[in-house]
Amino acid sequence: MYIAMNRFKVAPGSEDAFEHLWTTRDTHLKEVPGFVEFHLLKGPRKDDHVLYSSHTIWRDYASFEAWTRSDAFRAAHRSAGNENRVLYLGHPEFEGFEVIQTVK
């Protein structure tokens, strides 16, 4: 398995707009081979931001890579332009992880 995460530092007062943007968009993920599941995570509040993370689980790294080159990826990110940048501070920070152990 492979986990792909993007961290967002959301400006205080923009949490509802950020969550609405994410929860109402069409991710196009269900049509992508190797997709397992997606989570939008809300983390701790700091003085200048609230931390959020998009957390996507893939069958393997190759499935994730194929997603990043797909039409579904382009469609899902089509509206991720500068108009949404006012909701968060800086650029999203990507982190990718190969799963070493899973306990169920």
Automatic annotation (TrEMBL):
GO terms, molecular function: monooxygenase activity
Keywords: Monooxygenase, Oxidoreductase
SUPFAM superfamilies assigned: Dimeric alpha+beta barrel
Pfam families xref list: ABM (PF03992)
High-level lineage: Bacteria, Pseudomonadati, Pseudomonadota, Betaproteobacteria, Burkholderiales
Keyword Membrane assigned: no
Keyword Oxidoreductase: yes
Annotated ranges, domain ABM: 2-97
Protein name: Antibiotic biosynthesis monooxygenase
InterPro entries from the UniProt entry: ABM_dom, Dimeric_a/b-barrel, Heme-degrading_MO
Organism of derivation: Paraburkholderia sprentiae WSM5005
